[in-house]
Amino acid sequence: MDVYDPPMTVQTATEKRPAAEQSPPKPYHHGDLHRQILCAARDLLEENNIASLSLRAVAKKVGVSHTAPYRHFKDKESLLVGIAGEGFKEMTAQLNEAVELHPDNPRAQLQEAGHRYVKLVAENPQCVQLMFGGILPCDDTYPELHESGDIAFTALKTIIEDGQNAGMFKKGDVELMALSAWSSIHGLSLLLISGSINETASAPVETHALTTAITVTLLEGLNAG
Amino acid sequence: MDVYDPPMTVQTATEKRPAAEQSPPKPYHHGDLHRQILCAARDLLEENNIASLSLRAVAKKVGVSHTAPYRHFKDKESLLVGIAGEGFKEMTAQLNEAVELHPDNPRAQLQEAGHRYVKLVAENPQCVQLMFGGILPCDDTYPELHESGDIAFTALKTIIEDGQNAGMFKKGDVELMALSAWSSIHGLSLLLISGSINETASAPVETHALTTAITVTLLEGLNAG
DNA sequence: ACATCCATGTTGCCAGTGTCAACATGGATG
DNA sequence: CATCCATGTTGACACTGGCAACATGGATGT
User: In the structure, what pLDDT confidence band is assigned to residue A19 with cuts at 50, 70 and 90?
Assistant: First the structure.
């Protein structure tokens, strides 16, 4: 269900570690609480939504006191930034995989990236709302947030450039063409998770076919001229 | 301080109103608190963000007790639904204006609608996040929410159909083509207000030119074949 | 070996929030 | 004039984010 499961499964507080030789059932100092808090917060976030995510619930899920997270995150916003940051990293990873999967075929790269983007958003809708939903400040308060985004966008521009050099895409401003591609897929993804499409569309639409259709329209737009 | 002051000044509860000519069935002690609460909430929402909008602050701004809003809205979510509903209505209105502005020119209609969509989102970012941001349930809990959206989407499909009949757009599934158009513009708008574009783009981009470019790419995609 | 430090985790508290119950008010209706 | 009921108020509750003060115990230097 989750795209990136934590490498170590989350332990409930009451559960004792199977380590036999340790007499104290619960060590005072946690393993890496930082990671566990991030994972638990991610889980709770996707289970409900951003509005109903509370630091105290996260702490309870991990099995620590309600202020323990403050030793690892300055405040609630910092924790949210951490979650969003992982989302951006995963986004970048997916894009790179799409490129590697279809070497020397920018057209297929773009299509693959589109499908992976939609899938990633569909599987982590609340995280995406966090990344793009205007809860986090969009100024330079958290510069690390946009770094992965920069990398991803650069990779996208590389696809466009390669496509131009291969004669698959028309010549033109790479920045604008990359933004066109991003906008289409991003818009589709967000419309899907917001429920707008299935509600407004007269007939239910299959996501994969829809993504393909929109990607094709986009490619024809990039092709024309 | 307030952006749009209510047309009738706020009355304290104890203050009596000079019962002059009241021909319409205008109600009770207060003006229409329902409308004033909606306006105040909208203002406070755009001043900060969704997370920091509190019912109590709205009540205080209007000058009533902290539970007065509950006589007009079942709970906080219902108030948010009311705000989002107004947003959808405004969206529909903008689309219709775009159509009327360029009769018999679907291409210009689509371009105009795109610019108006981007502008509307830019001027009411928090409201848009409310409409599409996954805070409100996307099931049928509030069917009235999606009605205006349906109307708007139908209008969009009409543009596409007219364009096809006029030979401006290629033949094809109207639903899919309308979704392509919506996705592009929606994605662009949300990327803009989320700060992703100015952060990731190597050079600052002028919004209007960017919108035009993306609309043109879209139109070429709809044109191809 | 031992004393010390300090990162980590805890308890207790505060203001602020959404929401419910009980009460107050006054215009509309008989 | 009596009554009703929509509207508005007060007070309370559980919950939240966050601060301060305290507790613990692994790492460190001698």
Answer: very low
Record: contact A214-B185, CB cut-off 8 A: no
| CA–centroid distance for A111 within its chain | 18
Residues A129 and A154 both lie in one domain: yes
- Point out the nucleotide closest to B28 (alpha carbon to C1′): C27
CATH code of residue B60 = 1.10.10
| Euclidean distance between the first and the last CA atom of chain B, given in angstroms as a whole number | 54
B68: which 2 tokens? 């007065």
Residue-range definition of the domain harbouring residue B21: 1-73
Quote the crossing angle between the two packed helices B174-193 and A207-223, to the nearest 10°.
Answer: 80
**Contact criterion met (CB below 8 Å) for A84 and A145:** yes
Domains of chain B: total: 2
Residue A199 has pLDDT above 90, yes or no: no
- Beta-carbon neighbour count of residue A28 at 10 Å? 5
The residues, any chain, with a CB within 8 Å of residue A116's CB and separated by 6 or more, are A94, A95, A97, A98
pLDDT tens digits, residue range A95-105? 999 999 999 99
The least confident of A21-35, B103-117, B186-200 is: A21-35
Residues B63, B86 within the same domain: no
Residues 22-41 of B with CB under 7 A from strand C: 28-29
Given B73, B92, B110, the domain boundary residue is B73
Encoding tokens for residue B87? Answer: 């947003």
How far off is chain A from B137, nearest CA to CA, in Å? 9
Question: Which of B54, B146, B180 to probe the A interface (max A CBs under 10 A)?
Answer: B180
pLDDT of residue A106: 97
pLDDT digits 0-9 by tens, A75-121: 999 999 999 999 999 999 999 999 999 999 999 999 999 999 999 99
Interface mutation target, options A80, A117, A184, chain B, most CBs of B under 10 Å: A184
Residue B103 shares a structural domain with residue B212: yes
Residue B17 DSSP code? P
**Residue A108 in tokens:** 């297929």
